[in-house]
Design brief:
With 306 residues, this protein is of the alpha/beta class. The chain has one domain: Alpha-Beta Barrel (TIM Barrel). The chain is globular and about 55 Å long. The mean pLDDT is 93. It binds dihydroflavine-adenine dinucleotide. The site of dihydroflavine-adenine dinucleotide has 23 residues, from strand 4 and strand 7.
Length: 306
């Protein structure tokens, strides 16, 4: 899928395209499908709505690559408020964070200190924090920061592993050894052939292998995919091995394959939706567009049509 993702993400980086996406009413509708609101107050009713269906959430404040420590501190404040508000509403305090939003470009120490500040609040409210995985330039430092944080907060923090990366298997094995909770994803960034499979089938095969490994030997893995073949494989594999459905969960993105979310929950499978909110929605939105030719075509038609 890199053949498709790379050019779409490259075009999306142009200022004119971003200006268009931000101002077009039709594109806005597509943004609203993927993003739960610009503020926590707008996102919380969506989380409550999912909860009424039996679906849990992980809330993500959109934003990445901050360049000042003030911006990183502001993100910490919103994340801790989010944990506390979820707790106060009787919802599971579960959030997803990106280290570049906590200052990773400014240095490992600041990103780590900010992560710890969030994890302390998570511990206070009985919550859980997932560290999202970003582009491969950050993988090594993200893993290292996670592992140090996990030593101190083994119950409160988990990591994401992308199966398009060649290193994924070694990372999964190391995470299983330390008893860390892994969310398995295919990977959403534009990556060079030196580090990642460029072929969809290779990424999917790796996903299947690592998913089975985690289901059998991992600690409460999150199977994060909308791919019907992989979901069916997970269900069949777990059933064949006698792995009960409370030992793992499925995860999907807000606004993607809502039919499959309902199908999973109504057939007794734990399902969590990743609910993003905030004003910095553009990079997240472009990754969702680059995942699916039909989405890209829709935006292109609006662009060409004026
Ligand atoms: P695939 O792309 O093959 O899609 C399977 C089917 O799902 C499609 O045929 C289509 O029906 C539907 N679908 C998928 N994407 C869609 C879209 N955008 N719009 C409409 N339909 C769509 N990545 C990353 O690099 N780091 C991370 O931390 C995370 N975190 C994360 C959390 C959660 C909960 C999920 C579900 C995903 C992520 N991802 C991620 C994104 C992930 O890497 C991947 O890009 C997407 O999940 C799409 O891949 P699928 O596995 O769904 O398969």
């Amino acid at each position: 899928m890199q053949w498709f993702r790379r050019p779409v993400l490259a075009i999306a980086e142009r200022d004119a395209v971003e200006r268009f996406a931000r101002s077009s009413g039709l594109t806005r509708k597509l943004v609203d499908r993927f993003v739960a609101g610009e503020s926590l107050d707008e996102a919380l009713p969506k989380v409550l709505g999912l909860s009424r269906l039996g679906i849990t959430s992980t809330l993500d404040l959109l934003g990445e690559n901050v360049s000042t420590s003030e911006a990183a501190s502001a993100a910490v404040a919103t994340f801790t408020t989010t944990l506390r508000e979820l707790h106060a509403l009787g919802l599971e305090p579960n959030i997803s964070i990106k280290l570049t939003m906590l200052g990773l470009d400014l240095g490992d120490e600041i990103a780590f200190a900010n992560t710890v500040a969030i994890l302390e609040v998570a511990r206070e409210v009985g919550g859980f924090v997932r560290i999202d995985m970003e582009g491969s330039d950050y993988t090594e430092r993200t893993m290292a920061t996670f592992e140090t944080a996990h030593d101190r907060f083994p119950e409160e923090v988990g990591i994401v592993i992308q199966t398009y990366l060649f290193r994924a298997r070694a990372d999964v094995e190391r995470m299983m050894e330390r008893g860390a909770r892994v969310r398995l994803v295919k990977g959403a960034y534009s990556e060079p052939p030196s580090v990642a499979y460029s072929n969809t089938d290779d990424t999917d095969d790796n996903y299947r292998r690592l998913m089975r490994l985690l289901l059998e030997h991992g600690r409460y893995p999150a199977i994060a995919t909308h791919d019907p073949k992989l979901i069916a494989d997970a269900r069949a594999f777990a059933e064949a091995k006698g792995i009960p459905p409370d030992r793992y969960e499925f995860q999907m993105l807000y606004g993607v394959r809502r039919d499959a979310q309902i199908d999973l929950i109504s057939t007794g499978y734990r399902t969590r939706v990743y609910v993003p909110f905030g004003i910095e929605w553009y990079p997240y939105f472009t990754r969702r567009i680059a995942e699916r030719p039909a989405n890209a075509l829709f935006v292109l038609r609006q662009f060409v049509g004026g």
